[in-house]
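Appendix B. One record, verbatim.
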Amino acid sequence: MYSHQNVTLRGFHWEVSSLTFNLATGITQAHIGRAVSLDTSGANKAKLAADGDIIIGRLASVEDRTVEGSLIGAVELQFANTLPIKAGQVVAIGDTVVGAGAGEVKAAATADHSKNFVVEIIGTNAVVVKV
């Protein structure tokens, strides 16, 4: 995005890279916008990124289908948007982020821009590009 004052990459998503996943128990609408990782406890399942987890995407929506016995949601596998930084963690432009627990992020020990990269810090959020 561009305005006459600045450039930001916050808020981009690719519709073709948003897929429906089964979600781990306990995920709610309040978790939209958080980092998710693969949950190997079930087929096609995502969970909030735990400490050290590789981030597979950003939670875009949650649908509680309790009547049908399921919890599903859209996961953006490619995005340029905010992810919340865990309190007390330092994340800088150029870092790669990994899970820090509860869908929050922290800097990875080593940057790997093929996984993701931070382009901006806005308060307690990192603008992360994952393509």
